[in-house]
Amino acid sequence: MHRFTAAAVLIALCITVGHADRAAAFKRTTVGSPSRDFVLDSLEGTSLRLTENLGPRATILLFWATWNSRSLEALRDLQQLHTRFKDEGLTVIAVNVDAEGYAEGRRAAVSGVVQDLGLSYPMLIDGDLRVYDAYGVVSVPSIAVVDPKGKIAEVLPGYASTVRSEFHEKVLTALAMGTPSPEDRAPRVGTNGSRGAARRFLELGYVLQRTGRIEEATRHFTRAVAQDPFYKEACQALSTALQQAGRMDEAERVLAQLDGIATR
After folding, report:
1. Inter-residue contact 47 to 122 (CB < 8 Å)
2. Four-way CATH pick for 182-262: 1.25.40.10, 1.20.1250.20, 3.40.50.720, 3.30.565.10
3. Which of the residues in the chain have pLDDT under 50?
4. Which single residue of 82, 159, 200, 218 could bond 241 by disulfide (Cβ 3.0 to 4.6 Å)?
5. pLDDT digits (tens, 9 = 90+) for 31-62
C-alpha cells in the first residue's frame, strides 16, 4: 500500500457551491472535524471499520438510498473513480441508508443496484441508521471526503450535474498531492497496463499544470514518460512543462526523444 506525506491531509475537494450549501449536507459533520468511526456490515455479511479502511490519499464516503436517482448517478460515477484511481490511493465506501431495519427486501434492493451498476467498492448497510444519525445526514446522496488521518476534508450535498466535473477534477488534484513512493517512481515499461498507468500520471499532471503548479506537473509528466517512453502525448506535455519551468535544455532533449518516436 502506498504511503504519502501530510500534504495529502490538505485535500482540496472544493465544490463550486456556497459554504452554506456544503454545510447543508450534514448537521453534525463539518470540514476539519474528525470523522466519526463506525463498524457496519457489508452485503456479504463481513464487518468493516472506517478507520481501518481509510485510503492512503483520500476516502470518499457516500450516503445513498435506492429510491433516489441522484444516488444512483453518484454510485455509477464513483465506480469509475474507484476503478481508475484505487491504485493511486483513493478509497470509496458507500453506506446505504434506505430505512431503519435490515429486512431481506432491503438487502435484495441494494444487491440489485450493486449488480446493475457493476459496483466493486465496499457496500455497507446502516441497518439502524446510527451512522446516518451520527454524521447528521440531511439529504441523500451526500458525500463526506475523509483525509488519510481521519479528518473531514470536504462535504457535498446532492449530486447536481453542475458540480460533477469539478468534483472529479478536485479528486484528481487530491490524488496528485504527496510524495511518490519508490514504486511510483520505478518505470514499469513493458508490463501490462503501462500505458494506463502513464495516462493516470498524465491526467494528474494536467490538473496540476492548470492550477499553476508547474514543478509538480513536471514530476507527474516525467513519471508518465517513465511508464511509457513511446507515449507521444506524455512527451509533449513534459516538454511544454519543462519550457514553462525555464528548463530549456531538458525540454529540447525531450523534443529530441519525441522526434525519435515520430520516425519509428
Report:
1. no
2. 1.25.40.10
3. 1-23, 178-193, 264
4. 218
5. 889 999 999 999 888 999 999 999 988 899 99
